[in-house]
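Worked example 3. Consider a protein that binds coenzyme A.
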Amino acid sequence: MNSKITAIAVYTPSNRVTNEYFEKIIETNNEWIISRTGIKERRFAEPDEYTSDLCIKAAKNLLAENPDINFDGVDFILVGTTTADQVMPSMASQVQNAFNIQNAGCLDIMAACAGFVYGLVLAKGMIASGTHKKILVFGAETLSKFTDFTDRTSCILFGDGAGVALVETSDQPKILNAITGTDGSHGKDLYLSQHASVVNGENIEPNGKIHQNGKVVFKWAIQTISNKVGELLSKNSITLAELDWVILHSANLRIIEAVASELNYPMDKMLTSIEFFGNTSSASIPLAWDIASKAGKIKPGNKILLLGFGGGLTFAGIIVEV
Ligand code: COA
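Given these inputs, the predicted complex is written out as structure tokens:
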């Protein structure tokens, strides 16, 4: 059974945080942040606004923006997140409860910034196996609640937001082949630990904040992602020129520029969300999609390559046709 994305929607908190805010709390400046990351501003959730709330608001927007869509018959809910409100219940089960969706399996996916694409990979597989027909896939984060605001190399990066895609059965294959992979040896280069003080036998700080070895992750991303785009294209027998858009995880604009340059692909066909929302981890790809869609860029029939990568270090890529 083939599958397709029938709609995508997002929600971002209203609290807009500009780079000037960071000039007041750490030694930094607007020019450094823009030139090193591409980030102009990001959104922070309210103190009492959590990841499940962002998911529910994104799902409400999906219904409001697509009057022909409803959640009747949704049989699975997947939420990619690394910043869940709590370990249990899952974010997915809170979405199920909010919309009173009957008979839906619920699962959160912990694949960091690759969580949304992993969700699409799983949804495609579940529909292909014939066990499910209508799946909600979220990427949602409240990274600001897990940010170390004394670490100037990481705190300027992160923002909050959520995106959701409705994946349904299709006559034609609209969600094509995927790739996934992981290099777990880099576990301690990007971590968030609440309890354990060791990963891969190496000491880490279990303070509930995001720790990142920015240089290592940056280098890994540039080296890995260009190759993986090539692998994904050949797995689908599609050339780069046949793609209408590429959406890489918006981790840092310089990573996206470096990959575009390595692939000799025009930057204006790389869709991003980093400028206005910062690094929103699993939400960054649907946010980029939504920005481009509302700007009238994404059109029916377009082929889009999506590739998420992050903590693990892990990645997932997939090509979809709109
Ligand atoms: N403001 C001003 N200066 C800063 C700064 C800040 N917020 N943060 C770091 N600096 C300084 C450093 O101290 C360093 O100074 P020095 O040369 O005197 O030692 C200088 O800027 C350069 O630091 P560096 O760490 O080399 O910067 P960078 O160009 O690598 O950018 C990141 C840092 C974090 C933006 C970048 O490494 C990055 O984006 N990494 C990957 C992030 C990522 O992809 N994460 C998620 C994956 S999902």
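Take a moment to read the result before moving on. The domain at 2-171 is CATH 3.40.47.10 (Peroxisomal Thiolase; Chain A, domain 1). The chain is about 30% helix and 25% strand.
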